[in-house]
Write a structure and sequence with these properties.
Blueprint lengths: L6 H10 L5 H23 L2 E2 L3 E2 L7 E2 L2 E2 L9 H4 L10
Antiparallel strand pairs: 1-4, 2-3
Helix pairs in contact: 1-2
Length: about 90
């Protein structure tokens, strides 16, 4: 048996240990998530905000997505994640 850990879980472990590399890895992970979010937003013609690490008890590293205009439906690629959290859904 092995323990499989996500990036967010490994980052949180580094933070718990107060390891000097934790801040560097947090910035790298957030930058990667931010880059992915911007590609998705452009492709899906929606808006996004900055990606942030929010701890594993919350959402981990995530970016907010929102409509580009009032009444815009949630794109199918995002619709099965957190249903009901898109405005007017």
């Amino acid at each position: 048996m092995t323990k499989q850990r996500t990036l967010d879980e490994m980052l949180e472990c580094l933070m718990t240990l107060r390891h000097p590399s934790a801040a560097k890895f947090q910035k790298m992970i957030e930058a990667t998530a931010d880059a992915i979010a911007h590609i998705l937003a452009k492709e899906l013609k929606i808006n996004t905000g900055p990606a942030t690490f929010q701890g594993t008890a919350l959402a981990g590293t995530c970016a907010p997505f929102r409509p580009a205009f009032k009444g815009q439906p949630c794109p199918p690629a995002l619709s099965h994640y957190d249903p009901g959290e898109w405005p007017d859904e």
